[in-house]
């Protein structure tokens, strides 16, 4: 899906760098006459981003429109009877999100639904993992009857070194803290989907392709040449002071310094007239002006604003800026988070290229082996939804395997 098909979960937030994203709801009209119906092809993907079963928003549409609904969960087919405009259903989805997803207190979508029983009375509660508040839903809405009859699937928590299930509670794995690292990638997930099989097949000879050749990168963007430019850039930035302090503010706020930085980079990156070094220095000074040049979220913003579907050629171009701003494991993880969003949400066609992307970053010393290995074996909801996180990590397996084998060879040489 192209980036145009990704929108903010809260569509009232006009911020490209808003953390919570979902696919734009799509529709398809089928049938004629009394048999006409509206199929929602990507309802499963939308619901996954909301951490809700796809039956809930589909049934919500039916309640609001006075229409019959039907689901074929095995084939991910969700239908509302009648012909309904896509924009109308998107507006209704906003209503569902407001009533059954967003925390009533902080308006954050990082919630799970819980059913509380008190005697014969049952209430549906939104348990927010962001602010900790528990807020009730309007039990007068018709959807609540459906939810009570089809309650959220609760998955038992537990430490699993080789587990086969998600270590989460609530609807669709929505029980993780937004910043928490979830359980390691499960052995049970070894029943690889076709995409993973394709990636593995194409990358099984990765050991023979560990050097990014001049043909792939062109002579002036080889790792050696880029490292020389990094040193030159660092010399140009030597006099720039770096402020101390912890992360402040929210990257979800359209007026936050992170949003301002991202918008500035997007507007300026094509206007430097070929002088990439001058642009990178200016970008760093812009971050300094906003007081966030040392913060790991700035690395995430740079990755989102700079990288496109041509990321393999852009990494050596912009590597110097990341070399200057990445100063800790947290910064490296933010860079990986940017890559997750790039290939998982904006440009899924890049998934097979994940091993080469990681290799390029690794060769420029932007990522350390330990950080990549830990990232690759721990699914996280910090930067994307859990399913996207899993897909990106699956795609990274050939590179992780190469790292492990390279490390084994190094150990053998030392003996």
Automatic annotation (TrEMBL):
Domain spans labelled W2: 251-413
PROSITE patterns: W2
Chain residue ranges for the region called Disordered: 155-194
GO cellular component term of the entry, any: cytosol
GO terms for MF: eukaryotic initiation factor eIF2 binding; GDP-dissociation inhibitor activity; GTP binding; translation initiation factor activity
GO biological process: formation of cytoplasmic translation initiation complex
InterPro entries associated with the record: ARM-type_fold, IF2/IF5, Transl_init_fac_IF2/IF5_dom, Transl_init_fac_IF2/IF5_N, Transl_init_fac_IF2/IF5_Zn-bd, W2_domain
Cross-referenced PANTHER family: EUKARYOTIC TRANSLATION INITIATION FACTOR, EUKARYOTIC TRANSLATION INITIATION FACTOR 5
Family the UniProt entry places it in: Belongs to the eIF-2-beta/eIF-5 family.
Protein name, UniProt field: Domain found in IF2B/IF5-domain-containing protein
Native source organism of the sequence: Lentinula guzmanii
